[in-house]
């Protein structure tokens, strides 16, 4: 695997991207708009994510970060522009939406585990009902991923019995059970107590090391610095700046990014 | 008659004729709950639909049946509709009235239950590629149902007593049969004491059933408060707990 942690934005077209160049990008957004009434959540957003790339999306609150990644699996419907996920156009047609959702997994800020099901049932429901897997197969699969996120021993508990960090790791395992090609993280650690952030980031880091394509909205700049291939900085619905982490943190080009970084890195 | 005869009251309580009336009351209640739940679920789904015709109809339905007395509804169905050539048996009339009326109340309970399930639950289901049916059946319905049980219990308690109105259209349920016994023997207090005891027994039994249901469907959240407390030390010693 040609892992290149030093991948820069311009480097996508450079040496390391050679084998990926002919590949269909994991995500391609062209002039995407999203409005909520008078409010423009996404304002002509262009974004291209190569397969295997790890993107951290950051920016002040209300800048459209969450909307951006929620449009990728059509949980939010974009109003204008084109979105392709693994070459499938998100044109609001049912079958394309379904196809895209099968390729993507999502982790939410508030976990959104099903509270009335055990951890194991949370993980087996989708493989069994959407993929027609047998219960035994689905359980094996679920235990595989629960082991991977290091909570196999909590399989029979209900989400409410787990800590926030454990719940979020279950949510990651649950998403992985559908074997997605792209993982979307919407502020996965924002609802966690500080001492639990680490265990979730650790799980995400492991996933990144395995070559998963990841788009992650987060304020965890340490994680961004270490794991991201590229930082996408948003403000007022626009992608203001894209750069490799070291470049972005050292000398952000835009004034807005500079003030943002000043505010969050203290 | 200048005194109350407990013996007579007890005799009425074990009166076979009255007991059969109790069975009719139970039957009316059970049938109206089942019918009302099915119809109410449909009305609630229509109310939540984005189709303006469906939600408009449902709104009208709820407004109409909650806004008029059950007594009038029963009388209209029983004595009014035949004027238009629509005739049902007495029991059918009572059931139609009770179901139509109960559905309006249950629809609002069902709707509030579904609205209380967070949007995030649906989003998670979408993100996992669950079909709309599986999302409804396995994700939203069980959670909504748990929230519906307390108001549902309340409504069923009311319904149980509201079946007494069917006596007006000559359904021989508990109330009607009490009336009949009373007119035969004029032991007013004694007869109604027996009937009152039966209503209290029925509502108490339902209370117990409702508590059972709440416990059963609340087991995951109950597990949270009870077991977490009990098992906290175990969780903390497990190597996993806090990284």
Automatic annotation (TrEMBL), chain A:
MF GO annotations: ABC-type amino acid transporter activity; ATP binding; ATP hydrolysis activity
Keyword entries, A-Z: ATP-binding, Nucleotide-binding, Transport
Record field: transmembrane: none
Residues of the ABC transporter domain: 27-261
Family of the protein in this entry: Belongs to the ABC transporter superfamily.
Function: Involved in beta-(1-->2)glucan export. Transmembrane domains (TMD) form a pore in the inner membrane and the ATP-binding domain (NBD) is responsible for energy generation.
Protein name in UniProt: Amino acid ABC transporter ATP-binding protein
TrEMBL record, chain B:
Domain ABC transmembrane type-1: 22-210
UniProt entry keywords in alphabetical sequence: Amino-acid transport, Cell membrane, Membrane, Transmembrane, Transmembrane helix, Transport
Membrane topology label: Multi-pass membrane protein
Pfam families registered for this protein in UniProt: BPD_transp_1
Transmembrane segments: 21-48, 60-81, 88-107, 191-209
InterPro entries: AA_ABC_transptr_permease_3TM, ArtM/GltK/GlnP/TcyL/YhdX-like, MetI-like, MetI-like_sf
Gene Ontology molecular-function annotations: transmembrane transporter activity
Stored CDD domains: TM_PBP2
SUPFAM superfamilies assigned to the protein according to its UniProt record, in alphabetical order: MetI-like (SSF161098)
Subcellular location: Cell inner membrane; Cell membrane
Principal location listed in the UniProt entry: membrane
GO biological process: amino acid transport
GO cellular component terms, A-Z: ATP-binding cassette (ABC) transporter complex
Subunit structure, interactors included: The complex is composed of two ATP-binding proteins (GltL), two transmembrane proteins (GltJ and GltK) and a solute-binding protein (GltI).
NCBIfam families documented for this protein: HEQRo_perm_3TM
Similarity section: Belongs to the binding-protein-dependent transport system permease family. HisMQ subfamily.
Function of the molecule: Part of the ABC transporter complex GltIJKL involved in glutamate and aspartate uptake. Probably responsible for the translocation of the substrate across the membrane.
Protein name per the record: Glutamate/aspartate import permease protein GltK
């Amino acid at each position: 695997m040609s892992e290149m942690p030093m991948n820069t934005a311009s480097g996508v077209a450079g040496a390391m991207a050679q084998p990926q160049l002919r590949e269909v990008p994991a995500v391609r957004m062209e002039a995407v708009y999203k409005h909520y009434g008078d409010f423009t959540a996404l304002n002509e957003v262009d974004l291209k994510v190569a397969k295997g790339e790890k993107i951290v999306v950051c920016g002040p609150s209300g800048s459209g970060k969450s909307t951006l990644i929620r449009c990728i699996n059509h949980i939010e419907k974009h109003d204008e522009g084109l979105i392709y996920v693994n070459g499938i156009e998100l044109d609001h047609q049912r079958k394309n939406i379904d196809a895209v959702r099968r390729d993507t997994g999502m982790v939410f800020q508030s976990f959104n585990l099903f509270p009335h099901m055990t951890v194991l049932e949370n993980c087996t429901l989708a493989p069994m009902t959407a993929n027609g897997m047998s219960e035994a197969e689905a359980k094996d699969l679920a235990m595989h991923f629960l082991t991977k996120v290091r909570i196999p021993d909590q399989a029979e508990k209900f989400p409410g019995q787990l800590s926030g960090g454990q719940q979020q790791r279950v949510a990651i395992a649950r998403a992985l059970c559908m074997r997605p090609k792209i993982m979307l993280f919407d502020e996965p650690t924002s609802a966690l107590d500080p001492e639990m952030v680490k265990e979730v980031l650790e799980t995400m880091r492991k996933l990144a090391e395995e070559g998963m394509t990841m788009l992650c909205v987060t304020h965890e700049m340490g994680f961004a610095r270490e794991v991201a291939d590229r930082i996408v900085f948003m403000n007022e619905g626009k992608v203001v700046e894209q750069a490799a982490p070291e470049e972005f943190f050292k000398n952000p080009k835009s004034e807005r990014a500079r003030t943002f970084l000043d505010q969050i890195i203290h | 008659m200048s005194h109350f005869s407990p013996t007579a009251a007890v005799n009425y309580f074990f009166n076979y004729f009255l007991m059969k009336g109790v069975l009719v009351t139970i039957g009316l209640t059970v049938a109206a709950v089942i019918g009302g739940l099915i119809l109410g679920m449909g009305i609630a789904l229509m109310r939540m639909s984005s189709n303006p015709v469906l939600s408009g109809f449902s709104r009208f339905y709820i407004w109409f049946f909650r806004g008029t007395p059950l007594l009038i509804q029963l009388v209209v169905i029983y004595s009014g509709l035949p004027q238009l050539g629509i005739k049902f048996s007495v029991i059918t009339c009572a059931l139609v009235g009770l179901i139509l009326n109960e559905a309006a109340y249950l629809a609002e309970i069902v709707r509030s239950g579904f609205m209380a399930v967070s949007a995030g639950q649906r989003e998670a289901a979408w993100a996992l590629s669950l079909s709309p049916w599986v999302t409804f059946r396995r994700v939203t319905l069980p959670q909504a149902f748990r929230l519906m049980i307390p108001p549902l219990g309340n409504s069923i308690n009311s319904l149980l007593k509201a079946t007494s109105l069917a006596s007006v259209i000559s359904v021989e349920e508990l109330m009607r049969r009490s009336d009949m016994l009373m007119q035969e023997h004029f032991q007013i207090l004694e007869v109604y004491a027996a009937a009152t005891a039966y209503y209290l027994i029925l509502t108490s039994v339902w209370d117990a059933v409702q508590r059972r249901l709440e416990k059963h469907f609340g087991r995951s959240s109950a597990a949270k408060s009870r077991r977490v407390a009990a098992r906290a030390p175990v969780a903390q010693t497990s190597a996993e707990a806090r990284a």
